[in-house]
């Protein structure tokens, strides 16, 4: 969104290193004109790129999803909430980013004193990392519902994975 002033809001002072992500808040002349306030996030996904504004024209859907969830994760310590809902954030991500984001969300959600998390998604990759404090609820709906599924085996396998990943 357009505005007359730009204020860097990084927790640490921004430097001239183009590899760092950056956010800016655009401030309109009339500070009561909330429709013209906005957050401008600048990202680079490759070391050879300069920072670019995050928008729906420059980045893929997966890159926007990764940027959005990482931005939200970075801001969580600033706002207390009893629970958080993450809805289909993994849609459009490649497998590598989906695994990375899943692990970050799991580690954040299972940290002592963290808010309760609800991750809603129509699909999950196989062999993701799970934490012993997690509860996984699988709700099947639609024509593609499997004819049989051994839930006991599924949960047992999922609970063993964190121990194997820690080795």
Query: What sequence of helices (H) and strands (E) makes up the elements?
Result: EEEEHEHEH
Inertia-based shape:
elongated
Tally of extended strands?
6
First-residue to last-residue Cα separation: 48 Å
Q: What proportion of the residues is helical, as a percent range?
A: 25-40%
Give the C-alpha Rg.
19 Å
Mean pLDDT: 76
In which order are the strands of the major sheet placed? 1-2-3-4
Q: Number of DSSP helices?
A: 3
Summarize the structure.
This protein has 3 helices and 6 strands. The chain is of the alpha+beta class. The longest helix is centred in the C-terminal third of the chain and has 16 residues.
What does this structure look like?
The longest helix has 16 residues, at 151-166. The protein starts with a strand and ends with a helix. Helix content is 28%, strand content 17%. The protein has 167 residues and is of the alpha+beta class. The chain is elongated. A four-stranded antiparallel beta sheet has the order 1-2-3-4, with no helix packed on it. Strands 5-6 form a two-stranded parallel ribbon. It is built from three helices and six strands. Helix 2 (95-109) links the parallel strand 5 and strand 6.
